[in-house]
Design brief:
The structure holds two protein chains of two kinds. Chain A is of the alpha+beta class. Chain A is built from two helices and six strands; from the N terminus they run βαββββαβ. Chain B is mainly α. The radius of gyration of chain B is 19 Å and the shape is globular. The chains are: A alpha+beta, B mainly alpha. The interface between A and B is medium-sized, with 17 and 19 residues.
């Protein structure tokens, strides 16, 4: 017997580390219940971010939530931060086992 | 002679320029920076316990006023170099704030040359981080309102910003170290001296190796911004050093103290300022400020600036009646 799976949306936001607090706050306000943050380094259209010292750090914020919540968060992030900050985001369909936890 | 720690910095820059794979683990960078901030604070704190508080208040106020004034002086100069309002305000804030490592290298140079300085100088560093940032943010808001009309420039999130600056790593550890040192005194701090006092210069050397790698990466960016960033990065520090030395002289500081205050005025922040400006002035070009502060001014101060500021302090001492 296989586990019951439930569809959810994974929203991944890659952004300057300076935005971490604001992004988490905004996501929570829009209904995200859990998130994970990892420090990453790489390059985007704005150039290479190596994460070599404090001001050069980049985070990857992963949120799993309902599609509508992910949509609202993404819309807000684009409207509020995309003009002035290095921000990349993408969605993916995922399946979870315990839907009430997201 | 060039200080041995500066040679480590140059090695880091060289490694970066030749594309070496050398890289210090991030956890080590983090550890070294915590160590340096605490050690600098502790050293100042031990001395602080011997100082009458009445003597310190004018110094603290003068240091804060100096940090606050620097961006207002720089802003019109930067605007005349055709920098946009937000960029000029952000660059000015970086120079108004201070670089702890530049301070550490200057004190090491003074110690090596046997020039006395106020050992509680770490207190000056701690109080000089924030005022320049506040001034830069005010300038950016003012510039935005002037360019886009009233209401522009965003809503001030001063509380959040004050929290991040006052309880951020550098001010917290510097002030924490100062207070611990002041409470413990020389005798109380003796058991930890083997960790926090004796190996200080070796740790500073290692940290500078890493900063050399980071600054080397910014050096390549200088071409992107052209002559303006070079002019700002090299010409601004000596001018600010003059202002710092003048304040130090007016306060009646020792030769080493005048040199340190000149160095602090000439130094540019590349840790607290970039983060604060990203949040408070998002429209400013962060790479421009960082390239000027870390790619040009920091190496300039280490190699040429600090010896110049020490010579300046000695020159002032010779000229002024004792």
């Amino acid at each position: 017997m296989s586990l019951a799976r439930h569809p959810k949306t994974l929203l991944v936001i890659v952004a300057e580390a300076a935005l971490e607090k604001a992004l988490v706050r905004d996501a929570r306000e829009r209904g995200a219940q859990r998130w994970t943050v990892t420090e990453v380094h790489g390059a985007g259209v704005e150039g290479v971010r190596e994460g070599a010292w404090e001001a050069d750090r980049t985070i990857e914020l992963k949120l799993i939530c309902d599609a509508a919540v992910a949509e609202a968060i993404a819309e807000h992030v684009i409207a509020r931060y995309a003009a002035n900050y290095a921000v990349a985001l993408y969605f993916a369909d995922v399946q979870v086992v315990r839907p009430d936890r997201f | 002679m060039i200080d041995v720690v500066v040679l480590f910095f140059l090695l880091g820059v060289f490694a970066r320029l030749v594309g070496s794979d050398l890289r210090l683990p991030e956890a080590l960078y983090e550890t070294l920076s915590i160590y340096l901030l605490l050690a600098i604070g502790l050293k100042g704190g031990i001395e602080l316990s011997r100082q009458p508080i009445g003597l310190l208040a004018p110094q603290v106020l003068a240091c804060m006023a100096l940090g606050f004034a620097i961006p207002f002086v720089l802003y019109p100069l930067l605007r005349s170099l055709r920098l946009a309002g937000a960029d000029a305000a952000s660059v000015a804030a970086h120079y108004g704030s201070v670089s702890v490592v530049t301070f550490a290298v200057a004190s090491a140079a003074l110690a090596r040359e046997g020039i006395a300085y106020e050992s509680h100088a770490a207190l000056w560093v701690a109080v000089m981080e924030a005022p320049g940032l506040v001034a830069g943010i005010l300038l950016a808001r003012w510039a935005a309102r002037r360019e886009q009309g009233a209401g522009a420039g965003g809503t001030a999130r001063w509380r959040e910003l004050a929290h991040d600056v006052l309880f951020g790593k550098s001010v917290l550890l510097l002030l924490g170290g100062l207070i611990i040192g002041a409470i413990a005194g020389e005798a109380g701090a003796k058991p930890i001296a083997a960790v926090f006092v004796d190996p200080f210069k070796g740790v500073l050397a290692l940290f500078l190796l890493e900063l050399g790698l980071v600054a080397g990466a910014r050096l390549a960016e200088v071409r992107r911004f052209g002559a303006a960033v070079l002019v700002v990065g090299v010409a601004v520090p000596p001018v600010l050093a003059l202002a710092g030395a003048a304040v130090g002289w007016a306060l009646g500081l020792s030769v080493g103290g005048v040199a340190l205050l000149a160095t602090l005025a000439a130094s540019a922040s590349y840790i607290a300022a970039p983060t604060a400006m990203r949040i408070a002035v998002p429209e400013a070009n962060a790479a421009l400020s960082i390239t000027a502060a870390l790619g040009v001014t920091f190496p300039f101060n280490l190699v040429a600036g600090i010896p110049m500021y020490i010579a300046l302090a000695q020159w002032i001492a010779q000229r002024s009646p004792t």
